Amino acid sequence: QAEDGIRDRSPSRGLGDVYKRQDINLYSETTKSIRITVVPSFLDEHSSPDDSRYVWAYEVKIENLGQETVQLINRHWSITNSLGQTQTVRGPGVVGEQPVLKPGEYFEYTSGTPLNTPSGLMSGVYQMESKNGALFDVSIPVFSLDSPHQPMQVN
Question: Which of 78, 105, 132, 135 is deepest in the core (most CB within 10 A)?
Answer without folding.
Answer: 78
